[in-house]
Write the structure tokens for this entry.
Amino acid sequence: MTKNDKAKAAELGLEICDRCGWYESQLSHRCSPDEGRIADAISREASEIPSTKLGYGHGMLTFEISEQIHVRFQIFMRTITLREVYCLEDLSIEQAARIVRAIREIVDPESQKP
């Protein structure tokens, strides 16, 4: 659990599960220590970008790049899935193409080979 998560949890009055680090909800808490550790590892790997595990549903890790841009991952059963890239910025055609190419390069590096 990041400092950002701890501060936000305290501010919102949320209980945090000691075993997994996800917030406890009367409706949907499913203790998942492995998923919590994976989310924390991703947060540490990209520690220069603020992230939170709170407020978006269990298993969701969201990086807040700016007020208008965030990237959300879902961690479930040790699988990491890119759920959303949310961007309200005006992009040029070139910027949009660079985003698509960057994602392709990450998830399908073989496609780069001639």
Observations:
- The chain has one domain: 3-88.
- The chain has a mean pLDDT of 84.
- Strands lie at 15-16, 23-24, 51-52, 60-66, 69-76, 79-87.
